[in-house]
From TrEMBL:
InterPro entries noted in UniProt: FTHF_cligase-like_sf (IPR024185), LUD_dom (IPR003741), NagB/RpiA_transferase-like (IPR037171)
Residues covered by the LUD domain: 101-210
Stated name of the protein: Lactate utilization protein C
Annotated Gene3D superfamilies: NagB/RpiA/CoA transferase-like (3.40.50.10420)
Amino acid sequence: MSSKDRILARIRRAVPEPGPDLEIPRDYLHAHARRTPAERVDLLAAHLAEYRARVHRTGPGGLPPLLARLLGERRGARRVLVPPGLPPWWLAAADDSLVRVPDRASDTSADLDRADSVVTGCALAVAETGSIVLDGSPDQGRRRITLVPDHHVCVVRVPDQVVDSVPQALPLLVPTRPLTWISGPSATSDIELDRVEGVHGPRALDVVLLGPQ
């Protein structure tokens, strides 16, 4: 018997066989503080900004002009990907020269790469980690349309879509859906800690916190 076999055998003896009566202790904290809805949203905004996302706050009346401005600020941006369930009024103020590209199953990665931006909603946002969760719902589209374009504008309805922590978020999400967890723009660092953005997803992330008024 090899050393590997002996180690694995010891692990098997130490770990009980899973069964219907096996209870897994979940005595960890489900949130690290008691917060009002406003405090929860403020914490989310602070963590998003720390991750180098640009955070904006507005009400329904200010959303169309804000989205038009964010898309217009992208130099040379002319094509924006639009999920099938995105509310049409969100982009009502965008320039007529902006080409709205629908999410098509036939599009290749090269087709998606020709889009300059993508605008989506979200499923949830987690204040304590500064994370946004997408689940492929109609206002978000398929996962790949939020990974290929260089610029992602994500609208979070506050305070309803914001929870304190990951343990609070998980029961509200459907595990069989294609969940994408986003914490700031895509970035990585090499061994010398040189930060490179846009490696695994959008280089720029704008998060709009959409309040009720």
